[in-house]
Amino acid sequence: MSNDGTARTGTPRGRRPRATLRDVAERAGISRSTASRALGGHGYVAEHIRERVRAAATELGYVPDVSARTLKGRSSGVVGLLVSDLRNQFYAELAAGVEHTLSSAGYQVVLVDDHGDAERAADGARAFVAMRAEGVLLAPSGRTATELLVEHGTPVTEVDRRSGVRGCDAVVIDNEHGSRAAVEHLVELGHEQIAVVIDETRWDTGRHRLRGYRAALLAAGLPRTRRHVLDLGTAERPAQEEVAAFLADRPSLTAVFAANNVVAELVWQELKRRGEAVPGEVSVVSFDDLAWMRMVEPGLTAVRQPVFDMGARAAELLLGRVARGGGGRSTTEVLQPSLVVRGSTAEPGR
Amino acid sequence: MSNDGTARTGTPRGRRPRATLRDVAERAGISRSTASRALGGHGYVAEHIRERVRAAATELGYVPDVSARTLKGRSSGVVGLLVSDLRNQFYAELAAGVEHTLSSAGYQVVLVDDHGDAERAADGARAFVAMRAEGVLLAPSGRTATELLVEHGTPVTEVDRRSGVRGCDAVVIDNEHGSRAAVEHLVELGHEQIAVVIDETRWDTGRHRLRGYRAALLAAGLPRTRRHVLDLGTAERPAQEEVAAFLADRPSLTAVFAANNVVAELVWQELKRRGEAVPGEVSVVSFDDLAWMRMVEPGLTAVRQPVFDMGARAAELLLGRVARGGGGRSTTEVLQPSLVVRGSTAEPGR
DNA sequence: CTGTTAGCGCATTCAG
DNA sequence: CTGAATGCGCTAACAG
Fold first, then answer.
1. Is A63 within 8 Å of B297 when comparing Cβ atoms?
2. Residue A102 CA to nucleotide D10 C1', Å?
3. pLDDT in tens, A173-220
4. Terminal CA-to-CA distance of chain A, rounded, Å?
5. CB within 8 Å: A296 and B296
6. Within the 69-98 window of chain B, which residues sit less than 8 Å (CB to CB) from chain A?
7. Does pLDDT of B3 surpass 80?
8. Pick from B202, B165, B157, B167: which is nearest to B310 by CA?
9. Total beta-carbon pairs less than 8 A apart between chain A and chain B
10. CB contact under 8 A, A6 and B113
C-alpha cells in the first residue's frame, strides 16, 4: 500500500475514476466474478490466482464500493447515532463509547446531533432509513425519531432514556436509585432543607431522578414541598436568572441537589456569584460527574455514571439484535451509578 | 407522514421489505421513471400525477435508497470526520461545529475516533473511500490517513493542524500568535521564570505554540532554556509523575504556560496537590479555554479558540471544494484566538 | 409530458 | 475451480 506508485503517476486535473472490480479483473487477466471471490474470500479460487488478483487490487488502489455492495442486498455496515447535544460532555463521552465498540466491530457510525430540536432528530432518522442503517442508537430530543425508525423496522436501542415506544432495546442508568443515594447522603449529614434543580422532566430520566429525590425525603420522614423543586424546563426566564431568584428566595436551604451536569454548572456558578460558602452554607451534589467537578475547590460530590460504558453496552446490544436479524424480545439494561463523595457536602453549618 | 397506517398494518415477524420506487409507481399506476421525476422534482411531470405519486409514496412510507442513488453516480451525501479523541472536549466541540454545518447542508457525517491510534485512523480513511465520501475533515493522530485520502483523490480539509501533505485545505488557529500573547501577558506582569508544558510537538500545532513561547521570551530579552520546557510527548514516565517531578525540581518558576487543555488539567491538579497558591506563588495560563477553567477559583487565564466555528468553517470550506468538483488551489484559513484574562495570572509574588 | 431502455459496481446464481 | 449472466434500486438518455 506504500509503494503504490499511483500517487506518482499523477492525475493533473480532476480525479481519475476510482478503480473498479472490472479494472482489477482485467489487470489480473481473469473474470470479474473470480476477482470478486478472490477478494471477498468466499468460494473457491486457486491460490496463485488469488495472489495475482490481490496484487492487481493494491496496484490499482482498489477499494470496494459499499453502495454497490449494499444495493446488492448485503449489509450497509452503517449504524446511526443520534444525540441531543454533542457539546455536552455527557453526550460526547456517550458517543465515544458507541463509536469505539462499533468501529471495532467494523461498522461505520453516522452521527447526528439534533441540538435539542426534534425536527432535526426526525430528519436524522429519515436519513438513517435512507442509508439503510442496520440499526440506530438514540438519545434524541423528541420521540418522533424513535417512532419513525421503529415504524420502518430499523432496530433501535435507546440510551440514557426511554421514549416508551414499544419494540426497542434500551440501556439506561438507575436514575431513581442514584438520585436517592445522593439525597440520602445529604439526609445522613443532617440536612432537612434540600432543594432539587432540574431542567427536563418530560423524559423518564428526569422524572426518575425527581422520584428518587422524593423517595429519599419520604424515607427520612422529611416534608416534601414544591417550594424546594426548581424545574427549569417549565420556566420562562433564562435559566441563570431562574436559579438566582430561586436561591435568593430560599435562604433557609442548606443543600442543593443538581439533577444533571448542566444544572450543576448553573448552581455552582450562582453560588459562587452569591459568595455562599460550599459546603459551609450550602452543600451541593450533582447527578453526573464531569472532569471539572474534581478540579474545583471543594470538589463536587457527584453521582457518577458509567457513560462511556453505557454507550459501548448499547452498541453491543444493538449489534446483537442486528445479528439476530432484528427479532426477539426487547431488553432494557439498567446500569448502576455510584456516589462519589467529595468536599462539597458536609453537615449543615447553622 | 403521521397518519401513515403502515404501522397498524403490522409486520408480525421479520421486516417487510422496504417499499421501493417500483412499488410507489405501481400504486400510483404509472412508470418508475415518472415516479422518480415526480419525487425528485426534476423534469416535467403533470401536477395531478405528481400529487398522486406523492400520496402513494407517503402511504407506503417510501424512503429513497441512497446506495442506489449513489451507485447511479450521484453524490453519496456523506462526509467523513476523523478526530483523535472525542472524549477531549476540544474535539467534541469541533465535531459539533462540523456536524452542525454539514447536516444543515443536507450531508451525513460519518464519525471516526482514532483514539490516538494511527492504524485506526488509516482504517477510517479507507472506510471513507469505500463509502465514497464526498470529502473528509481531518484532525487525526497520524498522517497516513491524510496521505491515503489525498492519494485516492478525496477532497480533504484538515482542521486544527496541518500534516504537510500537499493538496488539502486547512483551517487552523494562529497558534504562534496565541501562545505568544499568553506568554507576553506573563512577561508584562513581570515574570521571568516561565515554564511551558506540552505533550505533542510532532504536529505543527504544538511546534507553533512552542515557537510562540520562545518568541515572547526572545522579544522580552529573557533567557530561553531547555530546563523550562517540559515535553510530555517524549517522556517515559506517566504524565502526572513527570509534571510533579518537573515542578518539584524548579522551585524558582513563577509561571507555567500549559500548551493545551490536557496539560492544563495536569498542571492545575499538580499545583493543587502541592498546595501552591495560584497566582500567589505560580501564575498559570492555558492554551484552549474549557468550561472548567471558569469554574475553578481563581479562574484560569486562557487562550480562547473559536473551536465550534473552526469546525463549522472547515466544513464550509470542504463543501465549497466539493461543489467545485474537487479542483482549485488549496487554501489554508487561519483563525485568531484571543486571550481571556482571569485570576490565575498576577505579578510574581516574591 | 410520459414510458422504455440501459447501466452504475458488486455478489451470486448457474453452467461449464 | 472459473466465467457468463442476472439483478439489487435508482436516474438519465432517448423515444414516443
1. no
2. 29
3. 999 999 999 999 999 999 999 999 999 999 999 999 999 999 999 999
4. 72
5. yes
6. 70-71, 76, 78, 81, 86-87, 89, 92-93, 95-96
7. no
8. B157
9. 168
10. no
CATH number where A292 lies: 3.40.50.2300
The distance from CA A197 to its chain's CA centroid, rounded to whole angstroms, is 22
Phi/psi region, residue B286 (left: phi>0; alpha: psi -120 to 50; beta: rest), is beta
- Please answer yes or no on whether B131 and A151 come within 8 Å at the CB atom: no
Helix (H, G, I), strand (E, B) or coil at B348: coil
Residue B324 distance to chain A (closest CA, Å): 10
The answer to whether residue A182 is domain-embedded is yes
**Shortest distance, CA B228 to any CA of chain A (angstroms):** 25
Proximity of residue A153 CB to strand C below 7 A: no
Would the pLDDT of B350 be above 70? no
Number of domains in chain A: 1
Which nucleotide's C1' is closest to B31 (Cα)? C3
Q: Specify whether the CB–CB gap between B283 and B348 falls below 8 A.
A: yes
Cβ neighbours for A273, distance < 8 A, ≥ 6 positions apart = A244
Query: Is B240 an interface residue toward A (CB < 8 Å)?
Result: no
B171: β partners: B159, B333
| Residues A102-159 pLDDT 10s | 999 999 999 999 999 999 999 999 999 999 999 999 999 999 999 999 988 899 999 9
Whether residue A74 is contained in a domain is answered as no
CA–CA distances in Å: residue B233 to residues A252, B122, B203, B206: 51, 21, 11, 10
The answer to whether residue B102 sits within a structural domain is: no
Q: What is the pLDDT of residues B294-328, one digit of tens each?
A: 999 999 999 999 999 999 999 999 999 999 888 88
Of the candidates A290, A301, A15, A307, which has an alpha carbon nearest to the alpha carbon of residue A179?
Answer: A301
Provide the residue range defining the domain that includes B255: 175-305
Evaluate whether residue A148 is within a structural domain: no
Residue A5 has pLDDT above 60, yes or no: no
